[in-house]
């Protein structure tokens, strides 16, 4: 694949968080020649395995790391970078250290586009909200040579990412998922936390990933300990790749150095090519 010189970086909390919302987008931009990286804060060891035979509490982080490596290979992106933080405890991690780690990665990889969760963390997961905050602040600080100045002494250069996108679901999309049998809520500690949809006018960007829906499903299916061996939501594999909500990924542009789109964007690199 010939490089087009563009770099995308995604940043999430747990293995599999990348899959539903950005798996197709990552595969699409790899196919265009972009360098695509995924930063994951934890190894997902606090969750339960839906395939108990496959895991023990001791090996769960290793299994989930391997599942994420598998997914990254499927998408065609670089191997995942881990922040090595404990699953479920991100809100009490030293915030300055976490932001500093992300600033350093941004200065090393020099992405044009950064993607993370919106402020709702999809369904309010504290780890997601923590990563949203870290990534947003890191976007703002990575260009400032006064911030984490010690990194410059170690060879880093300041870097201004051009665009920051939040991965968000529209209310309409959520309703369509629910009609298709998808979950309106995610269970956390025995409580169903509703997935949060955003009003349509907050969605700035819709990425058509229809050509990569199969790849996205294969990436999802790498996460066996999280979703099992079946296609998600009780769908057949053929059914889910044809579902319109599965074939589009939606984003909200949150920061831009190149102005604001006047119409709905269909390309994360709009204005940067
Ligand atoms: Zn998660």
Given as residue ranges, the uncertain stretches (5+ residues, pLDDT < 50) are none
Query: What is the second-level CATH architecture?
Result: 3-Layer(aba) Sandwich
Helix content: 25-40%
Oligomer: single chain
Radius of gyration: 18 Å
CATH superfamily: LmbE-like
Q: How many alpha or pi helices?
A: 10
CATH names the topology as Rossmann fold
- Attached small molecules: zinc ion
Structural class: alpha/beta
Let me know the largest β-sheet: 7 strands, mixed
User: How many structural domains are formed by the residues?
Assistant: 1
The CA-CA distance between the termini, in Å, is 17 Å
Portion of residues in beta strands equals 15-25%
Query: Which CATH first-tier class would you pick?
Result: Alpha Beta
Tell me the overall shape: globular
Strand order of the largest sheet: 3-2-1-4-5-11-10
**Strand elements, count:** 11
Mean pLDDT, to the nearest integer, reads 94
Instruction: Give the H and E element order.
Output: EHEHEHEHHHEEHEEEEHHHE
Structure, explained:
The protein has 273 residues and is α/β, with parallel strands linked by helices. It has a single domain (7-253), classed as LmbE-like (Rossmann fold, 3-Layer(aba) Sandwich). 36% of the residues lie in helices and 18% in strands. It has helices at residues 17-31, 60-75, 95-109, 121-124, 126-141, 150-153, 171-179, 213-222, 224-227, 237-242, and strands at residues 7-12, 35-40, 81-82, 113-117, 163-167, 169-170, 185-188, 191-194, 197-198, 205-208, 248-256. A hairpin with a 2-residue loop joins strand 7 and strand 8. Helix 2 (60-75) packs antiparallel against helix 8 (213-222). It is globular, with a radius of gyration of 18 Å. It binds zinc ion. Zinc ion binds at residues 13-14, 17, 125, 128.
């Amino acid at each position: 694949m010939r490089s087009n010189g563009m770099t995308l970086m995604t940043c999430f909390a747990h293995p599999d968080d990348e899959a539903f919302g950005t798996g197709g987008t990552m595969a699409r931009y790899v196919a265009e020649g972009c360098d695509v990286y995924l930063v994951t804060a934890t190894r997902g060891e606090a969750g339960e395995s839906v395939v108990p035979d496959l895991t023990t509490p001791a090996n769960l982080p290793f299994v989930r790391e391997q599942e994420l490596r598998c997914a990254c290979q499927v998408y065609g992106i670089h191997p995942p970078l881990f922040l090595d933080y404990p699953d479920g405890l991100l809100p009490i991690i030293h915030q300055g250290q976490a932001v500093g780690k992300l600033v350093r990665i941004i200065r090393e990889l020099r992405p044009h586009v950064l993607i993370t969760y919106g402020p709702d963390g999809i369904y309010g997961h504290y780890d997601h909200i923590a990563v949203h905050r870290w990534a947003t602040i890191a976007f703002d600080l990575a260009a400032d040579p006064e911030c984490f100045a010690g990194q410059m002494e170690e060879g880093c250069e300041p870097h201004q990412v051009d665009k920051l996108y939040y991965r968000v679901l529209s209310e309409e999309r959520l309703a369509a998922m629910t009609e298709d049998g998808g979950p309106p809520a995610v269970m956390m500690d025995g409580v169903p936390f509703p997935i949060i949809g955003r009003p349509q006018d907050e969605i700035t960007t819709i990425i058509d990933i229809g050509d990569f829906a199969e790849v996205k499903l294969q990436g999802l299916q790498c996460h066996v300990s999280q979703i099992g061996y079946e296609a998600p939501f009780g769908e057949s594999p053929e059914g889910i790749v044809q579902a319109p909500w599965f074939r589009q990924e939606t984003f909200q542009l949150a920061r831009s150095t190149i102005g604001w789109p006047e119409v709905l964007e269909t390309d994360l690199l709009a204005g940067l090519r």
